[in-house]
Amino acid sequence: MVRPNDEVEALLQEYADLIAITGGEAFKARAYEKAARAIGGYPADVSHLDAAGLKEIPGVGTSIAEKVVEYLRTGHVTVVDERRARIPAGVRQLITIPTLGPKKAMALYENLHISSVNELADAITAEKLRDLRGFGEKTEENILHGIALMRQSRGRILLSTAMEAAEDVVAELSRIPGCEHCAYAGSLRRMKETVGDIDVLVAARRSAPFMDALTELPSTAEVIVHGGKKTSVRTAEGVQVDLRVVRPDAWGAGMQYFTGSKAHNIRTRTIAVHLGLKLSEYGLFDADGGERVASRSEDEVYARLGLPWIPPTLREDRGEIEAGLRGELPRVVTERDIRGDLHTHTDLTDGLTPLEEMVAAAAGRGYAYYAVTDHAPNLYMQRMTDEKILAQRERVRSLDGRHHGMRLLHGTELNIGPGGEVDWPDAFLQGFDLCVAAVHSHFNVGRRAMTRRLVRACENPRVNVIGHPTTRLLGKRPGVDADLDEVFAACARTGTALEINAQPDRLDLGDEDILRAKDHGARFAVDTDAHSIPQLAYLRYGVGTAQRGWLTPDDVINTWPLRRLRRFLRKDRTD
DNA sequence: TTTCAATCGAAAATTAAACCTGCGTTTAA
User: What sections of the sequence does the record tag as coiled-coil (predicted)?
Assistant: First the structure.
């Protein structure tokens, strides 16, 4: 479901960008940015609020509340439209390129009339940029690098974006009479970190009502194809949705086929051939007589192939077929197995929500324990002090166990400095129940230095979790260059967990690295790094990624009972 | 533009690295 809050957040962020590009009103831009974030992270639905209710949200005053009301009522905000008319959308696109901010984007537009990423790439090739004041060779290089990364991920969208759009479509289509099943399939069901397009499958006798309904959904911006077998549309956010309607008795075969992956399906089809069968999206058939032997459910199809049902997150032909044939498929970790979140923030640093509210929301999710891990002083922008974190500890202790017995852990997110050092001296760190440590800057220290840096952090007896280990940002920044095998081995050796950060633009570690780390015997923590209440629900993306890495509950420390977790957090120390 | 404290107006999130240019601007965490 695309939350109205997210829509408003996007609108205010766009306005903030436009103000920043036009220049001269830095505080105004910052105010809109802050309000955008606050609304995105606000737990209640803003579309149910009036101006007075909106002003309750911190960072939202008279002026912004008015604009939000205008947007919710009319779908437009006059002043935003005015700015849009002055600055082409392509110029705003430019500032999504890393190292290219609002000032440079405006300079490019004013001096060279560049208003799209493609035009920018051409201008660099034509060596037009270097004559511009403030631009040089290195800037050109950085911009080109940013554009290349962008193009690599072009057309692919974040898992969370796809999931929200897909759940919307599935909910709408499920309501139509005659719908026996409706679900999304494809790489989305396999929980890949990015998704090309969304495949939705319906089981029904007649296809037309569903095909028509898809083209008429409010979220549909453009109809690409519209037929009886397949309909494709594009949503306002540019996501392509493909819909197929299958006969109810072919539901299982359809889901199996459209879930993929291609490599997995090649294997299942080969197995079918060896058994004298033929597998297609319509069912599993006898190769000779042509009669259908299985198709109603995935379970039935897999069973007839001599396989157990295989979780979609494993269907990548990475050994799941062999494991299934041997009866040794892993019992992958699920959201229900997670007993607590070990990396979260509050408004003491860059979170949006006060401690008490985050804790109450966590308890509402049924957690047995929950860690609060605000930033430490070395991330200067957060202005953390010893006094502040100790005062927070008192508040955490007083809330401990107050929500149906949920236990609270007081932690912190340390910054791993260029040489692997962290914020506080050992004596001070001793006071925390757990420490997450992560790299936040100095990404280009070189492979050897980066490896040493991460290994040193693991060797710190107070560091329990390496947060977002590669620090990648999907489509924006590659992971750091380090010998990850060495880091994973150090994690296993020292009893330091690797985080699977569930923020949709991170999903860090990613599936392939998880598989390698597991081989080294490392443990993992699936955490949300939540900065607001809605972000606590990102957990599902972290769990999906963990499944893609074949992790079982035993591999994931925050599925463990608190006693076992505490033992792990001691890292064999005796104090 | 918001917030806070005062009733109109001032202050607001810091630091460092990178880059371009020759000391200052831009970006990003």
Answer: none
